[in-house]
Amino acid sequence: MAYLHGQVSHINNDTIAIHRPERTGVEISDSAEIEEFLDGAYGARLRIKENRPRRSGEHLIYRRVDVGAFAIDDVRLPGELEFSPDQLDKVVAVCATGGRVEGRCEGLKGEASAGEVTMLSQPDLPHYSRAEDLSVTSVLLKPSIVASIVSGLPAWQASETVRFADFRPVDAAAARLWMSTVDYVRSYVLRDDIMATPLVLGQAGRLLAAVTVSTFQISAATQESEHDRTDAKPELLRHAIEYLESNVEGDIALADIADAVHVTPRAVQYMFRKHLDTTPLQYLRQARLHRAHLDLLEGDRLHDTVTAIAARWGFTHSGRFAVMYRETYGQSPHKTLRG
Length: 339
What we know:
Elements: E1 2-5, E2 22-28, H1 31-42, E3 48-52, E4 60-66, E5 70-83, E6 91-105, E7 108-113, E8 117-119, E9 128-141, H2 143-151, E10 164-169, H3 172-189, H4 198-215, E11 216-218, H5 226-230, H6 234-246, H7 254-261, H8 265-276, H9 280-298, H10 306-312, H11 318-329, H12 333-338
Antiparallel strand pairs: 1-2, 2-4, 3-5, 4-5, 5-9, 6-7, 6-8, 6-9, 10-11
Helix pairs in contact: 2-4, 3-4, 6-7, 6-8, 7-8, 9-10
């Protein structure tokens, strides 16, 4: 293992700190050392399977420039390899400069040969990928920076949940723009460490995030602002209600409902308020209250208790449950059970 410059620099997912460029370079020939190094570099187990051994004298060649909020990698990885990584917690877009790579994640597929751009995974999900004699340039972005571009909120305030609807570029022109932008940042912005101030690097990170968002289609579940209202259709409301009713026993949050119908949490809130004059979680609470009511009607007062039935449906405060139940059904839960 030959380290050319420095050590592996990780992308910190807890803050959005910008620092001077840290440069890493390494060449490795041993398979076990390659996997160990790459696991450390990407902060996740990659689970590499070698289908075709590398030829004699072939090495992993790895270069990284890391500024904290984003990093650009140039990697030469000979051989035929499969990867089954854990989630990377990064938005990663790649341009193959040689060989071929493909990836699959939750029903989406991306692939690239020399001169082509693709994505391989969602930031927060595991995926599968396969590479053949690959040379690749990768851009790794903190999800909050990409979410900031989508939502218009500051990066520290934006949600880190980012999903893409397609791993392929929207068109060839967008792919070319992505490649030229990455080349500009790498060749000019990052070339001079003195000129690469935190302010300049912060702007560069936002530029990379913006061109990535314009190149790859963002999922509706990530969209904000005007989409919140246009997505609030009765059909989506019906799907949201079906999801709630079928998962009423589960630990459901607003984000789960939004993810199930592929809109933003704000859109879910809007359509429940507009069409039902309630909130999604209030609707869920009433659905659970109805299930508790059915259990009380069918309960055996010798073996069942109001407290146990209420707790079964998430009502742990018996007094509040009794008040809510009386307001809804006009009698106490104890009377229903006795009846």
